[in-house]
């Protein structure tokens, strides 16, 4: 087996590991095996690999993707370089870092933290639990350090030359404490879920927890920026007791205390920045045995319970689909999107972003326009377009599945062409994933803006439907759920960005037509025509065997 030479950096710490009861040679071999297997896993940020690559020659794609995180780190440079208020600038820095690291933990490392293969394969061998747990902890730690190192390497260099050596060293220490806190916090949340739920329901709840974490971190970042009042390019910060629950302020407070000047609250936050992660780590070690015991519940394959007597998918399938075969694939795609854990893990966080983004932009508009009444009389309802940001990514993910080997059914089924397959799947995506988000946001927007926007909501819906079919036409096509998740997003990154810009074009066109007399109705009529033409052109007759072989 191929070896990972850089793991030799752990060898000087062998005595330390052995003092804690860890079998170092075994732990190192387990860790090495895990890292080699990670060559088959593709990080969410790039989702790119070659389907024809030799597995024996595959290298770790996460490490190859680190340059993207280095580029993303440039956004932190202005906050590190400024000399305004350390609490302000470093709270924003750690807020952004915690958001990016936590979302990466959710999307890419949940499979590591919730891995049951150790229990199934290694636990039956004469290996101590401490050795296995240490290998798992180091596995996550290595990737977390690589991730945060890539996200902070440029800000660290800028901070060293701009702010001095004390700032640089303090930044490194706080980054390490932040990493520790994020790992433990994520594991604790998973432990709570594992503690009270079983089987398939547990697997669903884990996905919902991941969505909730994504939404919380996004909203939290918006909330952090509003802790401060910018007046004439000067920043003022007034500490309050409730800010103790805003974690980025913990890690920003040492900079203010040691380099700016502090008060009682700043000192308290500084103490929490050290004591909080250490206390969390101590709690994690206590909960680890319980966490491992409950982790076995993920291997449970209990039934999903009783189904509702009212079969929503049957009703929608008969209403939306034309033809028996299209209805069959509508129901098939509906079930796959609800049961595929890996699919939901990649797609559902996108739903969370689509839910909150319109309200984030609307809240910023509320602050800039100076009141609710002014915003209510304006055209802020156009932010509803942002609920469609998720559509290109979801369409792209529809061809991937953890059970892709079952795609032989396409060849064996009596199908003459792919049109009913794609139509049924796309309609199921709209009905199951997009429609609930759109309906929820429509109700809230109607409460805010009133019934005057009903024609505009119809226009937005027609625009989103046209946007959906255009996304389908532009993106690479494969039969639904027929490809492994490891090959996700091969070369569609720029297309996704282009489609997001196209959504802005739809919103801009809608805005222009609102200035015309009966402009909404004219644009509505045009969109109806465009939808009719696009849905006719998109689904050309193509033999199933040809698409499957491609």
Count of DSSP-assigned helices: 23
In the predicted model, the low-confidence regions spanning at least 5 consecutive residues are 42-59, 305-309
Backbone CA Rg: 26 Å
Strand content: under 5%
Give the overall pLDDT as a whole number: 77
User: Distance between termini?
Assistant: 33 Å
Structure classification: mainly alpha
Globular, elongated, flat, extended or rod-shaped: what is the shape? globular
Order of strands in the sheet with most strands: 1-2
The percent range for helix content is 55-70%
Total beta strands: 4
Sequence of secondary-structure elements: HHHHHHHHHHEEHHHHHHHEHHHEHHH
The largest sheet is:
2 strands, antiparallel
Keywords for this structure?
mainly alpha, two-stranded antiparallel sheet, two-stranded parallel sheet, single chain
Describe it:
This protein is mainly α. The protein is 69% helix and 2% strand. The protein contains 23 helices and four strands. It has helices spanning 14-19, 24-37, 61-64, 66-72, 77-81, 86-113, 117-122, 129-163, 165-196, 199-224, 247-259, 264-295, 312-320, 324-339, 341-369, 372-376, 391-397, 409-412, 419-449, 454-474, 493-514, 519-538, 544-549, and strands spanning 228-231, 234-237, 400-401, 483-484. Strands 1-2 form a two-stranded antiparallel ribbon. α11 (247-259) packs antiparallel against α12 (264-295) and α21 packs antiparallel against α22. Residues 42-59 and 305-309 have low confidence and may be disordered.
What's the SSE blueprint?
Blueprint: H1 14-19, H2 24-37, H3 61-64, H4 66-72, H5 77-81, H6 86-113, H7 117-122, H8 129-163, H9 165-196, H10 199-224, E1 228-231, E2 234-237, H11 247-259, H12 264-295, H13 312-320, H14 324-339, H15 341-369, H16 372-376, H17 391-397, E3 400-401, H18 409-412, H19 419-449, H20 454-474, E4 483-484, H21 493-514, H22 519-538, H23 544-549
Parallel strand pairs: 3-4
Antiparallel strand pairs: 1-2
Helix pairs in contact: 2-8, 4-8, 6-8, 6-9, 6-10, 6-11, 8-9, 9-10, 9-11, 9-12, 10-15, 11-12, 13-14, 14-19, 17-20, 19-20, 20-21, 20-22, 21-22
């Amino acid at each position: 087996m191929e070896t990972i030479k850089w793991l030799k950096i752990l060898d000087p710490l062998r005595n330390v590991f052995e003092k804690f009861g860890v079998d170092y040679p075994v732990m190192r071999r387990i860790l090495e095996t895990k890292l080699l297997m990670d060559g088959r896993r593709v990080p969410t940020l790039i989702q790119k690999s070659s389907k024809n690559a030799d597995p024996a020659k595959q290298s770790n794609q996460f490490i190859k993707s680190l340059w993207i995180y280095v580029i993303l780190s440039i956004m932190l440079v202005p906050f590190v370089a400024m000399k305004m208020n350390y609490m302000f600038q470093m709270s924003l820095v750690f807020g952004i870092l915690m958001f990016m690291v936590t979302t990466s933990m959710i999307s890419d490392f949940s499979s590591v933290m919730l891995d049951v293969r150790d229990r199934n394969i290694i636990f039956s061998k004469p290996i101590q639990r401490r050795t296995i747990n240490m290998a798992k902890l180091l596995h996550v730690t290595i990737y977390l350090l690589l991730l945060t190192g890539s996200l902070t390497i440029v800000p660290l260099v800028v901070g060293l030359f701009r702010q001095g050596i004390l700032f640089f060293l303090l930044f490194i220490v706080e980054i390490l404490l932040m990493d520790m806190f994020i790992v433990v916090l994520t594991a604790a949340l998973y432990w709570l879920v594992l503690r009270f739920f079983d089987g398939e329901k547990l697997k669903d709840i884990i996905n919902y927890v991941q969505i909730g974490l994504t939404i919380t971190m996004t909203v939290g970042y918006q909330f952090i920026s509003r802790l401060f009042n910018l007046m004439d390019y000067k920043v003022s910060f007034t500490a309050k007791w409730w800010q103790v629950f805003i974690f980025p302020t913990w890690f920003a407070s040492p900079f203010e205390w040691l380099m700016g000047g502090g008060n009682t609250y700043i000192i308290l936050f500084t103490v929490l920045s050290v004591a909080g992660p250490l206390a969390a780590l101590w709690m994690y070690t206590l909960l680890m045995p319980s966490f491992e015991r409950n982790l076995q519940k993920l291997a449970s394959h209990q039934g999903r319970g009783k189904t509702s007597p009212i079969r929503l998918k049957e009703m929608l399938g008969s209403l939306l689909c034309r033809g028996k075969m299209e209805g069959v694939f509508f129901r098939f795609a509906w079930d796959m999107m609800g049961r595929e854990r890996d699919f939901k893990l990649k797609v559902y966080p996108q739903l969370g972003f689509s839910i909150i983004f319109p309200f984030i932009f609307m809240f910023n508009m509320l602050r800039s326009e100076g009141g609710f009444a002014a915003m209510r009389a304006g055209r802020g309802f156009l932010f509803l377009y942002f609920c469609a940001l998720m559509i290109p990514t979801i369409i792209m993910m529809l061809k991937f599945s953890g059970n892709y080997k079952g795609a032989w059914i396409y060849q064996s089924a009596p199908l003459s062409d792919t049109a009913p397959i794609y139509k049924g799947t796309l309609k199921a995506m709209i009905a199951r994933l997009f429609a609930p988000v759109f309906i929820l946001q429509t109700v809230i927007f109607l409460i805010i803006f009133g019934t005057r926007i009903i024609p505009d909501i119809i226009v937005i819906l027609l625009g989103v439907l046209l946007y959906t079919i255009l996304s389908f036409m532009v993106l690479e096509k494969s039969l639904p759920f027929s490809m492994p998740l490891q090959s996700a997003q091969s070369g569609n990154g720029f297309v996704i960005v282009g489609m997001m810009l196209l959504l802005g074009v739809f919103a801009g066109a809608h805005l222009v037509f609102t200035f015309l007399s009966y402009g909404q109705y004219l644009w509505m009529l045009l969109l109806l025509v465009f939808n009719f033409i696009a849905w006719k052109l998109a689904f050309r007759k193509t033999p199933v065997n040809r698409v499957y072989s491609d």
